[in-house]
What we know:
217 residues, alpha/beta, two-stranded antiparallel sheet, 32% helix
Amino acid sequence: MERRRTAVLISGRGSNLQALMEACAAPDASAEIALVISNRADAAGLRHASAAGIPAETIPHGAFATQVGFENAIDRTLHEHGIALVCLAGFMRVLSPWFVERWRDRLLNIHPSLLPAFRGMDTHRRVLEAGVRFTGCTVHMVRAEVDDGPIIVQAVVPVRPDDSEESLAARVLEVEHRCYPLALELVASGRVQVVDERVAIAGALAPDVLVLNPASI
Length: 217
Ligand code: GAR
């Protein structure tokens, strides 16, 4: 099967981009990272792309008079590169409904919480303030609302009593790097279907685990 040409949109560090590139380097991967777009010229992720020989473009949002102009430039670039799927990976611009609709069910996002809880910014600080015992990450299809849309993959991590925002972010990031490649593979291989705004995955099994936190007292 021909690999699905995938673009990754970033704004910064690009560790999820790196995880996606590594997974797609496998000979049997269903997706190929064919383009990286950053809205910031100083995004570290651009260097990961160049190092891997992947075309990388900067499209600075500030260079456009309107949001539509910025999004049109992204859309045009995606089409020029024959892109079939788009992954948002730490892309810190909200995309307009028209763009989201144009890429409906071909546009994925990762968020560092168990959605629909803790949408938006400062996720880990709010998780700690809320005192929840578990958090995690979510890969989902993008819809017009921020951090909303049919869920493809989630992973859970415990919140520990001595966690800081940094320690929690690091624990969640580790599972992000497993979830995003898995979600992309599921979508690119054609196993994901969105039915009534829920994702159905052919042949997928839920894990047979039950985890308590605290584990013991
Ligand atoms: C990741 O933790 C990702 O989940 C988060 O930004 C970070 C990007 O890291 N995204 C959001 O908060 C989106 N709402 P990376 O640049 O190293 O992949």
